[in-house]
Amino acid sequence: MRRTALLLVSACALALAPGDAVAQRAASRTRYDPIFRKYSKRFFGPAFDWQYFKAQGLAESGLDPGARSRVGARGVMQLMPGTYDLIRKNRRERMGSITDPEWNIAAAILHDRDLWLSMHDNPTFEERVRFMFGSYNAGEGPIARARQAARAEQLDEHRWQSIEHVAPMVPNWRYRETLPYVQKIENTHQQLAQEPRKANVHKRDNGGKP
After folding, report:
1. Radius of gyration of the chain (CA)
2. pLDDT at 94 exceeding the cut of 70
3. Looking at residue 196, what is its pLDDT?
């Protein structure tokens, strides 16, 4: 009788396991939302859609705080230690370890802000976002060279489509990594935008600018 009861308990546990797994995945997917909201608001203003940065985190590491790339990039946002140290030094405020999810995300969004401000000449919000994330992945140098190549081809250097066109012509750029990266963030953001959410209406009263 006792064995039968134990078997029933085990069967019930197995029956609940799939639902528990779904709940765990959902919790894991949203656990850093407050951090993305906090630092998006701080560095970009309340009108900017914080889920762009969540989409970036998903593209970088799948939101894994323990992620480490083959070249040494660390954490949720896959920051290089040297980049993180420079951001921490320039902020002149106490920041924890690069492996701390909050500081990793905060530093990445601050780095995004610097890139965003440097892209002030882009004609639309959407184009500016693409160039910001492209520069985060590739660095500002390759993107600047790509814009120069676009000009040489008499293409609009402020359009990401032009950058995609000239990418194979640009030396010293792993464009096969950058172009899918930007597209992945855009696609993921569109998916996130369709999910129910309480505090993430993308306001356009100021074009999303900080």
Report:
1. 21
2. yes
3. 76
